[in-house]
Every structure is written in structure tokens, then in C-alpha cells.
Amino acid sequence: MIARALIALTLTAAATPAMASDYVVIHKEILVERPADAVWKRVGDYCAIGEWLKMKCELVSGTGDVGSVRQLNGTTLEPMIGRTDHSYTYGQTAGGMAAFAYHGTLAVEPVDKKRSKIVYTLIYDAALMPSDEVRKAQLDRVGPRFQGAIETMKALAEAEK
Asked: Which of the listed residues 112, 113, 119, 153 has the most CB atoms within 10 Å of its CB?
């Protein structure tokens, strides 16, 4: 009897349509008067975020490549899930945005031999947030914070001459 009830409950849950996602994409970019290699060398380390977002960053697992995990301010965990010569992508498994399927990609793209651009793209599922007020508050917080981050990265990279 209990087994039949569990099977019925499982089938009912499986037949229920999934909640619709509402992915928010925040795309920031800025031109830097330095070549891509030089910019990436200055700002591309996985824990360089500590300098340009003014927070504590510690590599708690790995060597700074795919599979490495950084810890921000002692609480937020972000495993690196992708990497190229001038980019990395991470997810957040613990922290303020983890429950909202938060991911980010930092990249430096060449423009020409002397210039490049820093591109930071963030994505999260606002449908997982409890209210419109929370959705607005997160968007109002995250967008300006990462605009400030790329401006700081630009200043750091251009100072290295």
C-alpha cells in the first residue's frame, strides 16, 4: 500500500510542469588601452576578484584551473567550470546567489594589437527568487557592482605599463 502511494506521488510529481525560468543576463564590457595578454595577466587570476571587488578570496581547492573552487569572504563558494587562455566561467554553489542558478564569465578579448576589452557576463534565474522586490533589489545591486569591477580592472591593467 505504501509502495503504491509512493509510486503515485512520484508519477504525479513527474507529470507536473516545471516552473518557467526567467534568466537575467547582465553583460558588461569596457575598452582597455592594453593588449589582451597583458590585461589577462593582470586581472585574470581566479582570485584576482579579491582585488577588483575588494573582498577576501581564497583558493580552497585546485590550482586555479577548471575544477578549482574559490571562497569569497569566507562563505561564498564558486567552482570554475570552464576556462580558455583569456577567460573563465564559474558557478556559485554556496552564497547569496547560489539558490538562483548564478553563473559568471570573465573574458578579455583582443580588439587590435594594442587594445582589448574586458567582458563580464552574469546570468541567474530570477524565477527562483521569492518576490518582485527581491528580483529588483538583486538587479539593482549586481549590475552596478560589476560595472565598478570592470572599471577597476581597466584601471589596474592600464596602470601596468
From this structure: 153
Estimate the share of the chain in helix, then strand, then coil, as percent rounded to the nearest 5. Answer: 35, 30, 30
CA atoms within 13 A on the CB side of 36: 16
* Rg, the chain, Cα only: 19
pTM: 0.86
**Residue 118 to residue 116: CA distance in whole angstroms:** 7
Confidence (pLDDT) at 19: 66
Residue 10 has a pLDDT of 44
Q: CB neighbours (10 Å) of residue 28? A: 19
C-alpha to C-alpha distance for 10 and 20, rounded to whole angstroms: 20
Q: For residues 144 and 146, what is the distance between their CA atoms, to the nearest angstrom? A: 6
Task: Please report the pLDDT score of residue 160 as a whole number.
Answer: 72
Are 64 and 46 within 8 A, CB to CB? Answer: yes
pLDDT confidence band for 18 (50 / 70 / 90): low
